[in-house]
Amino acid sequence: MKLKLAAATVAIMLSQGAMAQGQPQSCPAVAQLQAVGVTIAMQDQQAQGQWFGVTPNNTFGTNNEWTFAAGPVESQSQQGVLEAVNQKLSTLGEGMGPIASDDQDQQEKMYICFYTNQSSDFVGITVTPPFAMDGVTNLLHKRLMKK
């Protein structure tokens, strides 16, 4: 639970909202996350050799636009990161959420969904409205460190 709350806090602090979309009815399904996959590899600046995969803006079969990030994985290349993350997406369980942010500094309400595998060494997060790419690796790194 601390892991999920920490990720929500970091997501709220690092995010920059897009257009208001309203409260989502549900989290994107893992099957939809798998179908779309991740499209960008981002290196974790806090942990050498760890990478995350990100899809910055997609509906994932819902009525809302989301940012999705998952990881970490180790790789020597960005292509290797994308392949490793996309392969590991099948290990994620269905999302918990959507959880509304209550950060009063945030100009608009954000909603966050959390995903993890059984060993909690590979995690995912979706956030609506989509948020700025800078800080996404920090968000997932913090989530992993709080378990």
Descriptors:
147 residues, alpha+beta, globular, disordered N terminus
Description:
This protein is α+β, with helices and mostly antiparallel strands and 147 residues long. It contains four helices and six strands. 28% of the residues lie in helices and 27% in strands. A six-stranded antiparallel β-sheet has the order 1-2-3-6-5-4, sandwiched between helices. The N terminus is likely disordered.
| Overall number of structural domains | 1
Strand content: 25-35%
Shape: globular
| Average pLDDT level | 79
Biggest sheet, spatial arrangement of strands = 1-2-3-6-5-4
Spell out the helices and strands N to C. HHEEEHEEEH
| Unreliable residue runs | 1-20
Radius of gyration (Å): 14 Å
Amount of helix: 25-40%
Number of contiguous helices:
4
In this structure, how is the largest beta sheet organized? 6 strands, antiparallel
Number-wise, the strands total: 6
Alpha-carbon distance between the termini? 8 Å
Derived structural class: alpha+beta
Assembly annotation: single chain
